[in-house]
Design a protein that fits this description.
Elements (H helix, E strand, L loop, with lengths): L1 H15 L1 H30 L38 E5 L2 E5 L5 H12 L3 E2 L20 E5 L8 H13 L9 E6 L5 E4 L5 H4 L6 E8 L5 E2 L2 E3 L19 E3 L6 E5 L13 E3 L2 E3 L2 E9 L5
The structure holds 2-acetamido-2-deoxy-beta-D-glucopyranose (NAG).
The site of 2-acetamido-2-deoxy-beta-D-glucopyranose has 3 residues, from loops.
Main location: endoplasmic reticulum
Subcellular location: Endoplasmic reticulum membrane
Protein name: procollagen-proline 4-dioxygenase
Length: about 290
């Protein structure tokens, strides 16, 4: 039985003949390679529309295998891209994007931000003042919009964030680039504004995308103390660095949603920045709103 089968296979091969088998292979690999390179070159030209050289805007998206793109709509992409991610948590909904930006892109953003750093400020609740909230947020930072960055890097990153979230770029605030030095921190807080505490809001922050621009030797983690319902018994000290902790790594992204799909604030999206113990932390934050940010 076994012999018959292999004999059958052999006769099929010989019928096709070695030369034609070889030629079919060549044709197959030629087209596979041709398609593959077409996809990759589309990818780079699509995203590299900024003003910087191709090295700064080099795509980190790679097509893992040869996939044939679908016919696309007027505003769609002609290529298939891959943006790898890991779900870190469903409570809050948090996603991690390794290698979202290149080292060069991160360095370029830091360079632009450095010249404009000022002490970070807080959105104040009723009864709060700059004085009585001192120490909650001790980083320095600056807001930079993509249009202000002539290198095109922020535009590139912004487009990639819009793709990863499928929330249009117009819903994002300008990038808030922050530097935390040793001992600097941000106590646990919500990015969404509860109207009961902050008064009526024109629009709501629904998600936050953090792009880590530096490695931090020790400390500086982004923490979610209420992850999966932990520590929610009113005993939590807002300075404590507990719960799910995300270690900053240069070029990596962290996306989390501050509201449920129905728009209610997700209490587990409480988060903070643990104090930097060794090194320096640089991060670019993009707050994404439920309405266009004008
Ligand atoms: C909104 O969604 C959350 C999570 O699914 C749910 O717990 C909450 O009750 C909802 N709120 C309203 C007002 O529907």
């Amino acid at each position: 039985m076994k012999g018959t089968k292999s004999k059958g296979t052999w006769s099929f091969r010989t019928k096709l003949g070695f030369p034609s088998f070889f030629i079919s292979c060549c044709i197959f690999f030629f087209f596979a390679g041709f398609y593959g390179s077409m996809l990759l070159s589309h990818d780079i030209s699509l995203d590299g529309g900024g003003m910087a050289g191709p090295r700064l805007l080099e795509s980190v998206e790679e097509v893992s295998e040869v996939l044939v793109p679908m016919a696309h709509g007027e505003t769609g992409d002609s290529n298939i891209v891959s943006i790898p991610f890991q779900v870190l948590s469903w409570q809050p909904r948090a996603l991690y994007f390794p290698n979202f930006a290149t080292t060069k892109q991160c360095q370029s953003i830091i360079k632009i931000a450095k010249s404009n750093l000022a002490p970070s400020t807080l959105a104040l609740r009723k009864g709060e003042t700059a004085e009585n909230t001192q120490g909650i947020r001790t980083s320095s930072g600056t807001f930079i919009s993509a249009s202000e960055d002539k290198t095109g890097v922020l535009e590139f990153i912004e487009k990639k964030i819009a793709r990863a979230t499928m929330v249009p770029r117009s819903h994002g605030e300008a990038f808030n680039v922050l530097r935390y030095e040793i001992g600097q921190r941000y106590d646990s807080h919500y990015d969404a504004f509860n109207p009961a505490e902050y008064g009526p809001q024109k629009s709501q922050r629904i998600a936050s995308f953090l792009l880590y621009l530096s490695d931090v030797e020790e400390g500086g983690e982004t923490m979610f103390p209420f992850e999966n319902g932990l520590n929610m018994d009113n005993s939590y000290d807002y300075k404590a660095c507990v719960g799910l902790k995300v270690k900053p790594r240069r070029g990596d992204g962290l996306l989390f949603y501050s509201v449920f799909p129905n728009g209610t604030i997700d209490q587990t999206s409480l988060h903070g920045s643990c104090p930097v113990i060794k090194g320096e932390k640089w991060v670019a934050t993009k707050w994404i709103r439920d309405e266009e940010d004008k």
